[in-house]
Structure of DNA polymerase III subunit epsilon:
Amino acid sequence: MRQIVLDTETTGLEYSQGHRIIEIGCVELMNRRLTGRHYHQYINPEREVDAGAFAVHGISNAMLNDKPVFARIVDDFLNFVGDAELIIHNAAFDIGFIDHELNMLRPGFGSIKGRCGVIDTLLLARNKHPGQKNNLDALCKRYGVDNSQRDLHGALLDAEILADVYLAMTGGQTSLSLGGNQAKAEGGGNQEGIRRLSSQRPALRVISASAEELQAHEEKLAAIARSSGDNCLWLKP
């Protein structure tokens, strides 16, 4: 199964107020493994970045002046995403901006959800951890994901971090990169900041229980069953 972990940065909070996407970052998962392929692109929004947004991501107007406009990158972006399932934190925000850009460029396009399924990791986290902070930094701390390089928001860096969080949150799997640390970004960006386990590391040693240990285990469960009135959880089907 192909999944794309995606994040965007924008000029402001509301596309309905004319704000635009200025950065897209995507990383690819195939059958829950990072492939090393990613897409990264800065975009000239043809308007100024709000001061509040600049304080969040640190991307200035000057940095974007020589970057391509959305119309120049849309085909590469859609080709990379394809019909993969999208994994996004607070998906309504990113999907809203992406749909807005696509429909300004191609009226009647509709929603990217018409071609891609979407998993919202914020909703997933709220279901798993109700009443707790579930922003990306809080999830990194909860699942032991290294976000020490995240002084400011960045679309590619946040997509990389979110991939690790998603794998940990949905199965305890973390940092299985097949592409190494220096895979070149499609779209011209460079991957940096995330420390991953080497794909060349030795296989984990599997130690099986001996016959004596299995017998001792069965005896212990039987003892628990006797003392609990046959309510041993580990013996229930």
Observations:
- The longest strand covers residues 21-30.
- Residues 174-193 have pLDDT under 50 and may be disordered.
- The chain has one domain: 2-171.
